[in-house]
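Data availability (excerpt). All sequences and predicted token strings are deposited with the supplementary files. A representative entry, BMP family ABC transporter substrate-binding protein, is shown inline so that the format can be inspected without opening the archive.
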Amino acid sequence: MKKILSLLVVLTLIFAMTGCSSKPDEPEKAADKPAEPSQAEAEATQTAPEDMTVGFIYVGPIGDGGYTYAHDQGRLYLEEKLGVKTIYKESVPETQEVEQEIRNMVDQGAKAIFTTSFGHMDYTEKMSKEFPDVAFFHCSGYKTTENMSNYFGRMYEARYLSGIVAGMKTQSNEIGYVAAFPIPEVIRGINAFTLGVQSVNPDAVVKVVWTSTWYDPAKEKEAAISLLDQGVDIIAQHQDTTGPQQAAEERGAFSIGYNTDMSTMAPKAYMTAPVWNWGPYYVAQVQNVLDGTFKSEAYWGGMKDDVVKLAPLTENAPAGAAEAVDAATAKILDGSLAVFAGPILNQAGEVAVEEGKTLTDEEMLNMMWFVKGVEGKIE
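Structure token line:
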């Protein structure tokens, strides 16, 4: 009997040891899959609004009346809605200085940092790896890391609508466009604007002048003047300042702004503008950080998300423009109008988008060609 009992004990130990060592790769595979945080874990990572500091790094001054001003309005909206503390730094160039400003903000307790210019991207990516416990958000770029999102808006939708206004207003059928840099973001906007123009006025053309600046009021105004000297009667822009608007006003022309409602800057010229509405996005993302539910993503919201929209038309807009814009807006919102749906011809008159096809997000994000009707080169 003792021998039997001893044998049973030995067998039990063998089975126990076998069970502990069988298929050792299975637990490792399971460990590779990140587990969803439990409610207790999520609650443990929550932060009270009064303990949250959020940093913003701007490429221009908050008083530019355009791009940086729009972001700063979003910051103020964030403060109002969530009660968090925000800090910001104006006029940070697209250089290594971004890294130092990020370090300064982390030292001040920032747990979320938004960098707002395309050229801030690589520096933000580097810092996100240095500070893994901080949530980073980069505007207009394409890179992400485990704790860094990128975000932008489908401004081309509002650009198309503003093109309708310009196409209905022009008498010379020549519209000027003051453009910043020849990158997909800017090219996509020029093309969308031109398609909007041609949807109501197939004979109109859009003349492009590059400034190689984001924020240089004098240079951007000079570029607009050069276009006005060529006979354009409307000025549109992809710039951070109101310089082009002021040039149009001084020369008795009309204008389409950008970034914010620029009606007070050129009341006799300005008709409307594609504008940013960053506040709701900032609130949603910071709330995620507060709740401990932040996850890195690539965000590209559109008019349906209220991130981009067309500013109210002024009395300078042509008769019938409001109705035409409203009709096109409804179609964009219900999905029946895609700005880059074929057939679309390129600048050389060749088919770039076939009938029945629509450009993918990837194709739009990498756009480096002009549609027919654009006069200018991608330099």
